[in-house]
User: What shape does this take?
Amino acid sequence: MTNAPAPAPSSTSTGAESAVRAIGLTKVYGRGEVAVTALDHVDVSFTRGEFTAIMGPSGSGKSTLMHLLAGLDSATDGQVLLGDTEITTLGDKQLTLLRRKRVGFVFQAFNLLPMFTAEQNITLPSELAGTTVDRAWMDLLVATLGLGDRLTHKPYELSGGQQQRVAIARALSTRPDVVFADEPTGNLDSRSGTEVLSFLRRSVRELAQTIVMVTHDPAAAAYADRVVLLADGRIAGTIEKPTPESVMAGLDALRVVETAGSGR
Assistant: This one.
């Protein structure tokens, strides 16, 4: 029996358990007749120390949701709370400082600085924030991610999988409240992608991090503790303890609903 999508309200936990949550989150692009609603009054919570994947059809709003949760875009309405901090009321400077200290990012394109070594890329967030690098934490990250013999290498001397591991270490280096991963295996072969997803899961289980990952790949989503499904800018359900098969079943159910709604 597959893990079918649960009703949307099950995606919301209590604030005390949340690393980041959205309340009535709405994003509209454009105005008047050309207005497009990317997110429509979304309520969702992401629990501390949990690995959550966000999935949905193209145009469902999953990337928009991640960008708003991370403070990379502004909401039309609603709230985003990072812990107890409402970030939707912060100005640009305050958001920049908050992201440096409390949010980590892993992108599909790695985004490493080519003139820096792997170690310099990892410690960059601390340098930008003007804080001291926690060497014990750094050593633990390097050991966990298997980067001990790559720290003096520059990005062009590393494989794609190694570059993404450096990016993960950079994202975790300041012990952020949440790490947002946007299609982190999109530029990797299957073997490197599996390694990266395994490291993300280990960072949750062994290092007590919180990961929110946007992906289109059911196999990647199966590494998460939970999958949140979006459709038409709304929460469409959740899948607990996902497997590739249960995720595919959930996505297929969304397609059936979309087809029925379109009248086809």
